[in-house]
Records
---
Amino acid sequence: MLDGMDTKIFQQLGRIAQKYPQIPWELLRGINFDGPLPVKRPELGPCWLWTKANVHGYGNFSQTKGGKGKSVSTYLTHRIVYALTIGKIPEGLVLDHLCERRPCCNPCHLEPVTHNENIRRSFVGKKLWLKEICKNGHELKGENLIIAADGARRCQACATIRFKKWRDENHAARSEWEKAYYQANKAKILARTVACNRARAQRKKATELT
Ligand SMILES: [Zn+2]
Ligand SMILES: [Zn+2]
């Protein structure tokens, strides 16, 4: 008898199986579709974590072909799920985990890149982790490095960009507001201007006369 949790998982598996009938059931069954969200890219949705055998942290899926265990093919789970849902992985490319979780096989978290690009990304990741660069790739040293009161290493270039963006947005918003105000109160503003001009002219006349 299934308890509540199992029923939920079962229903979810059913939905996924319906959406991707090309993924074999043995493969679907080994995936937790309710994984955590990627830390850096939560907009990509939850990770699909392979819960069974793995090698070097990557999911590892074996399939027996030809009935009586005659030939066993082993695949990396994320590669086979990608190939089944999105399509063939272009020749010579590797799949980069955008979520940085090796057992994840959510095709939306996988991007085919060259081996060099993959290495460059992990290199950038290491520099980011060591806070040698900011998340936008500016080097955190010399005048570009701000040490905050709490000891955090902040980027001057990013702070400047953020300030300029804020200034531009607020300026644009203000001039929009001013334009709208002018349109709504045109008659009143013009009347006041005319009155001011008249008053000024009269004052001038008065000083001329004395
Ligand atoms: Zn993932
Ligand atoms: Zn920066």
---
Amino acid sequence: MRNTILIGLLLTTLNTAQSADYPLGSVQVLAPQSRETAPVAPTAVVYFTVRNAGPQADRLLGVDTPLAGRAQLHAMASDDGAMSMQRVSSVELPAGSDTRFTNRGYHVMLLDLARHPREGEQFPLTLHFEKAGDLQVQVEVHRDLPESSP
Ligand SMILES: [Cu+2]
């Protein structure tokens, strides 16, 4: 019984430490995460939430990382009932709201991978905002990610 409680406390601590947040003025990037990919996989994805707490809308214009030759903003779109993804040139970040990058909506797609990220690793990703400027975050790599993150 005592051991169970102790393990519970440890897990809570790990979960808190796991989710790093990165503020830049009124814009905040919450819990940037990637999924471990197979060595043959041609791409990797990055998920996070952008919180725009300011009174003005902003826009995410692009991202880059030394891990990949190309990093693109993608959106899921329904094409005759089948979901497919499309590259978008920017993502609107309305004032006072959270914009989620998940497996069901916007996401970052990494192509031309220099190497394949492994569970437990971190890699840098720089986000370019139209108004807030550039923000570098550390993306945490997990083997399994929840359906929608965070
Ligand atoms: Cu994609």
---
Amino acid sequence: MTQIPPGRMLALYDDPASCERAAAADHHRVSQERRDMTTTDYSVKGMTCSHCADAVTGEISRIDGVSAVDVDVDSGRVSVTSTAPLDNAAVAAAVDEAGYELQS
Ligand SMILES: [Cu+2]
């Protein structure tokens, strides 16, 4: 995994140009294309609608280092973009908190 120098994230978020790009384009896509980010796909059981997706997104977003969460309800796929690899137990706990079950 790529190590991120301290201060690198702040530099990214303090750059007004990157904010404008994020606002103009699809926000998740922009986040995933940043090379210092890690994106991991998870499989979540039990989601049936956008409300479920919102609940899962909200809980996972609270984990330290998470910058984007993309949910596909039909397949149960949850793509999580973060500044460092995430602890699987933390993701499982967040999904459980939302009322669903992490598979794997
Ligand atoms: Cu639902």
---
Amino acid sequence: MFMSDEPKIVLSFLTKDESQIQLARDYWTGCDDGHGWKWAETVQSIAERYGMQKHYVASTVREIARAHDPDIRCSDCSAPREIESRAAIRPGFGEYVCRDCNAAKVQSKNQELLEQQMRLAENQGAVVAEVSSRVHLIEYTSIEYFDAVVLYAIMLASDEACEKGAFDDAYRLHLCPGENLTRELLNRLFSKNILQFSPDTPPAAIVLNEDERWRYKPYEVRWRISPDAGGATFPQIFAEIGNLIDLRSEHPSYEQCVADLWWSVGFNDALNFLNQEIATYRISDYRKGPKTDEALRYALERFSIPQVRRQIRSVVKNAAELSVSRDFNRRHALNTIPGNLISYVDRALSEHWTVHPVFSDWQNDEPVLTTVLFDRVLGSGLTGFRSTNGAMLGSPALQI
Ligand SMILES: [Zn+2]
């Protein structure tokens, strides 16, 4: 056993082989000479004497003997501090916890986390079970016109929704131009009990707040369409709401609903298109504010949705060019977007510019709600999409 002044090194041997014990002693011999710790011999010199490679010395020694500093104890089990190699001769800061106690702590922390997760999943599952067990019967022949259009679009987009009255992965429906509107519409139908949670909704779709309230992630919920009060099957419901939509101007809320739908789709489309165009130029630090909203509204009031796309494309391109020019800083360039969009709209009108619409494949790439609005609700199809502006339809009653 070898002891030095500061810190103490106490060796306990794991072998009886004297020559090995000597190797461990040689390795661990050193002292503090008042100017710091000094080892009696370099590892290089020990390695040469014992005919081994230098980088094996520390690990070989550790198989022969464990080195401890009895003056420093584990705060949990009081075991003396193990010095694993020469590099660890000085203790670290803070209280010492030995390797075993550390491992035990990590394990109990993991266990605690696991239990926490299980409790969370249980509580989330309880919300799903409670909400999905509520029974709502809907008279589909008399639902609001707006809701009929949205539900019809969902059923058109998803065979499963139309045939079995259930659907998940709402993101893939490509219902609206952007995710925000899809989320809002799902919320709307849920709040009216037209959509419900399916019992097999994954618990992770529920977010529990600390005050025992909860919210849900519309894209993760497995949705089911509420059954019909009159016992109609889902394909029959699909036909019924189709008939309701075909009433068009005979329906009392048709005109307001058309304005609401067009503005919802148009505003969502313009905003989504603006974000896409900005992303193309990798100018990601654009912050959309009230001025952007106002500029998009201004443009949509006067031009059709695909024409507004063209105008947005042009002003974003302009801003991107400005942002790389010498005299303009980036943020300033981005700030020109709303103002320039309004100026573009004014000049296009006063100078009678032809604004060529930008659109995707009507059947396959435009959002389902957009095509349902023009093909079924308005009956004007792609031609209507290219030419209808906000002023032609009146103001929306919905908050858009
Ligand atoms: Zn310990």
